[in-house]
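Hi all, a correction to my earlier message: I attached the wrong file for Proteolipid membrane potential modulator. Here's the right sequence:
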Amino acid sequence: MRLFIAILLPWLAFFTIGRPFSGIICLILQLTVIGWAPAAIWAAFSVSQHKNG
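and the right structure:
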């Protein structure tokens, strides 16, 4: 479920794993159309690392 959130709302995924500062930075990145893809990739990577770590 978190991975699905990471793709659709990358900033929200950071809040679900307890990293609010990264979530705010991700939201700023996501506000640009070009920044959506890197934000989604970053969030998906962070969520996958959170599950493993």
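Sorry for the mix-up. The mean pLDDT is 89.
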